[in-house]
Write a structure and sequence with these properties.
Elements (H helix, E strand, L loop, with lengths): L18 E10 L4 E11 L4 E5 L6 H9 L6 E6 L2 E2 L7 E4 L11 H13 L1 H6 L1 H10 L15 H13 L5 E5 L7 H18 L2 E6 L2 H7 L2 E5 L6 E6 L14 H17 L3
Parallel strand pairs: 3-8, 3-9, 6-7, 7-8
Antiparallel strand pairs: 1-2, 1-4, 4-5, 9-10
Helix pairs in contact: 2-5, 7-8
The structure holds adenosine-5'-triphosphate.
């Protein structure tokens, strides 16, 4: 079940990988903590991968290194062949909390990254795209509404639009739907898959949920206890598009059981 080369959801064959991490380690010297140890990762274009592991094993640290928000202590991180040396505009990120600005309408929140990057004229020109995104995530008609009037799930959908408005090729997601109830979370995960397929985005997801990792991913990277290392890359051989019904298939259960047993072992490795 281990995999060295992931399946590709959108046909990235022949094109160079999007992310290549080689022997990435990270120590937080202030607290003498080694968070990551010798992590190797290759993400083909258009692939969907996730990392799963116990709390504190280094998943968010890995994501922050990939986003250029923190630097590795050793090893290299390349995005489309070039070293990642700081935050990048071509990467979209989403976190557990939607972090919308309460004094801006949903539409203005979505357009904010464009306004900051390219100015008001450019952001005005993107209004039709923002409205189309709201439509895409089922928020048609909520453009003039303030965040306090949105449910948690609606706010996360708006945050997803804000991430997508800049049309990033790469999505780095840190438990984006973990604060949602199970039904909203399932819905958002299927939306996420649809958008990734449509946009051919290369996506890397941090999650604590084994079923979520399996239903969404081409490859699930299972991380050991800290310092985080990959114990195994589990290739998920289920057809696309994935559906929630697939979660009741025996093959799905085989994958989740396998990952659960790796995590049980990994906690002590
Ligand atoms: N800025 C920092 N300074 C010092 N230590 C840190 C810092 N950020 C994270 N750590 C430590 O590094 C380790 C890994 O943290 P990280 O947030 O990457 O784990 P995680 O797997 O994402 O955890 P969780 O699943 O609970 O969110 C933890 O022991 C944490 O305390």
């Amino acid at each position: 079940m281990a995999a060295s080369s992931p399946a590709i959801i959108n046909g990235g064959e022949g094109s160079p990988p999007v992310f290549v991490l080689k022997s990435v380690s990270k120590s937080y010297s202030a607290r003498s903590i080694q968070a990551l140890q010798n992590v190797d990762l290759t993400l083909p274009r258009g692939s969907f991968s996730s990392v799963i592991g116990a709390s504190g094993c280094g998943k968010s640290t890995l994501l922050k290194i990939m986003a250029g928000l923190t630097s590795p202590s050793s090893g290299s991180v390349k995005l489309v062949g070039k070293p990642v040396l700081g935050p990048r505009r071509d990467i979209g990120m989403m976190f557990q909390q939607a972090t919308l600005f309460p004094w801006l309408t949903t539409l203005d929140n979505i357009l904010l990254p464009i306004k900051i990057r390219d100015g008001k004229k450019a952001s005005d020109a993107r209004k039709p795209s923002a409205l189309a995104l709201l439509d895409l995530v089922g928020l048609k008609g909520f453009d003039g509404v303030y965040p306090s009037e949105l449910s948690g799930g609606m706010a996360q959908r708006a945050a997803m639009c804000r991430m997508l408005i800049a049309e990033p090729d790469v999505l780095l997601l840190d438990e984006p739907f973990s604060a949602l109830d199970e039904i909203s979370r399932d819905f958002m995960n299927m939306e996420l898959q649809r958008i990734c397929l449509e946009r051919q985005a290369t996506t890397f997801l941090v999650t604590h949920s084994i079923p979520e990792a399996v239903i969404l991913s081409d490859v699930v990277y299972v991380m050991s206890a800290r310092p985080g290392r990959f114990i195994e890359a589990v290739e998920i051989d289920l057809p696309r598009p994935r559906t929630l019904e697939m979660m009741s298939e025996p093959k799905f259960g085989t994958y989740t059981n396998h990952i659960r047993s790796l995590l049980d072992k990994g906690a002590f490795i």
